Amino acid sequence: MTRLAPKTNVLRALFARSGNQCAFPGCTQPIMNNKNKFIGQVCHIEAAMTGGERFNHESNDEYRRSYENLLILCYPHHIETDDDDEYPVERLILIKNEHEQLFEKDDFKIDEAELVKLSHEMEKYWGDIERLNNVDHIYADTGLAMEVNGDNSFFEVINSTYRAIDGIKGILDKLHTSDEKLIDDFQALLSKRGVTKEIFDDLPYYENPFFNRNWEYHNLGTPNWLQRIRIDLAHIEVKYLEEYLKTNRNDLVAKESFEKAKEHLKEYAKTAMHVD
Fold this sequence. Notes:
Oligomer: single chain
Distance between the termini: 33 Å
Largest sheet: 2 strands, antiparallel
């Protein structure tokens, strides 16, 4: 799992609604000092990485770095809120919302240079990914290294995932066909040794390990799990684009993708069922 840095437009919105104060109730510690240097901390409500405070396995990396999952605290209150028993997700969301309501019409703005500085960590990370994958990969000289392209957009990554599902389905279909031919192949092998298939005629089908081999996996397990993945991907696509378009309303490609994804998810919500 990758820890994604907050996007610049998300940081801009956080600072604009911060009032230049730590979000912890009653704290007036500024988050920018008189030299216009950021001295606060951008904190996650649900942790960005496994093992962190309030980490949610059901969430995704885009939500973890979204505006809704971030708030700005001073260092002491960041440490204090690491106590996830005393500060569960619901309490931190309430703290964030109540603080931002106080400064809803505030015009506080952070220097754009500071936003660029805060985003620099992620730029360096993607540079490291490119170098590791294209130069330092341990199998770089074999032609077997799998591509990890940090320049791919969300749309390219999600489309690649859908293609991967189709690829997995193609392999599973071939395995299904192979299993269906297994009994014929076995009988052909017996005939080469002069053994006729009739010697098995009195054997009940359920005692024949070659009859309908892996039937439940092929006809129940495979379609159900593939459908589950398709639904979850459509759900992720809608969730991501919903947040993305809040700050990128003029992105026509994203709008078109959003409408298609919404229709797909609505169709799944209405018709998707388990094969049984």
